[in-house]
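Sample pair:
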Amino acid sequence: MPSTGRWETCGQAWLALLRHVWAQGEAGLDERGPIIEAPSRLFEIAALSPDDPILREYGKRRLGTASETAKSCWAGRLRELQGVDQLRWAVEVLRARPWSTRAWISLTVPGDRAESVPDLIGLGFRIHGTRLVMTAVFRAQDALSAHLSYVPLRAVQQEAADRLGLPAGPLRIIVDMPYIYVADADRVAAIIAEAPGGETSGTSGAAGAA
């Protein structure tokens, strides 16, 4: 089972993901080079904002532009995949059947080229109580830049919630293989040491992998 966590802000969740990879990571390999990969991670984020102070201080620079770049990798498949506006479809399912757990959309295409498969492979929408909860499933994710996907995903969740006349609940994230590139290890170590709650202990897994 993937390890779990619940965080109030995106910045807190992002730091926790980095620490998870740093503490439990092992040596691996990606198309772009050596990585430090960790076990699956499942967590929830209550609130997300591009003005998150942790992201502004320690995250990727030019957050807005970078978020748009991350979004462009999957936004097209969300709005139009084989002739279907998938977000609209999911909203219509829940509008007709508010209790449904079937409002899941895939961002993959059977038989597609391997290099075309996005990191984000699926989104699920469910009404829990009076709020709309969204689950985002990543096949793999670079933990250092993960927050660049979470902020625009919150906008998708909010859009669906607005169409249904509901408030947005937590955003649930499932990452099958979180990782960092070995080339980024020094930067990750600095963030972990300097960020709120940062610590230098528990780093033997990543250090050994690097």
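The CA atoms of residues 117 and 186 lie 29 Å apart.
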